[in-house]
Write a structure and sequence with these properties.
By secondary structure, the protein is an all-alpha fold. The chain has six helices and no strands. The protein is elongated, with a radius of gyration of 19 Å. The mean pLDDT is 90. It is a multi-pass membrane protein. It is found in: Membrane. It comes from Debaryomyces hansenii (strain ATCC 36239 / CBS 767 / BCRC 21394 / JCM 1990 / NBRC 0083 / IGC 2968).
Length: 177
């Protein structure tokens, strides 16, 4: 089954690496939560939204590395051991959760009084993208092949790497305007 010729049951096992790193990423976000709580206590109990972004900075790097690892190694079973794309998918899992959780917390902290509306807008936008991507994703994978789609997504993630840094550095100034 697939590039590596795994049986149906064994082919599902590499997904466990992603699941394990999602749990690890959740734990990392919890550790950063303690740092956020200390900063909030020093700020008279007022949240500092940018303090939520530290895990996102690390997560975005892991996400980009994971996409490239998966793209560059997954299509060459005769040359690359199966563990390499599995490590790539685990990096993707770690990156996804350490991007998603801080992003949600950041939105809530930025729009305290209107947090429900901000989260609804975020959910609507994510759902729109989630509904639109299947309309062209299959054609991308058929025409570009898995490796080049992975490289394209990896390049998009590299282009977006500065976003958490910029929000961490300039988020307060942007909100004040």
């Amino acid at each position: 089954m697939g590039e590596y010729g795994f049986t149906r049951g064994v082919a599902e096992l590499p997904y466990l690496s992603m699941l394990v790193d999602i749990f690890i990423g959740s734990f990392v976000c919890t550790l950063f939560e303690k740092r956020f709580n200390k900063a909030m206590a020093k700020n008279n109990g007022k949240p500092i939204p940018e303090e939520r972004l530290s895990p996102m900075i690390f997560g975005s790097i892991f996400f980009a590395i994971g996409l490239f690892l998966l793209a560059w190694s997954g299509s060459y079973p005769e040359h690359v051991h199966w563990i390499v794309p599995t490590i790539g998918s685990s990096f993707i899992g770690f990156g996804l959760i350490t991007i998603f959780l801080p992003c949600m917390n950041y939105i809530i902290d930025c729009y305290l009084m209107f947090a429900a509306s901000a989260m609804a807008a975020n959910t609507f936008l994510r759902s729109m993208f989630g509904g639109a991507f299947p309309l062209f994703a299959r054609q991308m994978f058929v025409n570009m092949k898995i490796q080049w789609v992975g490289i394209l997504l990896g390049c998009v993630s590299v282009v977006l790497l500065p976003v958490p840094f910029l929000f961490y550095s300039y988020g307060r100034k942007i909100r004040e305007k």
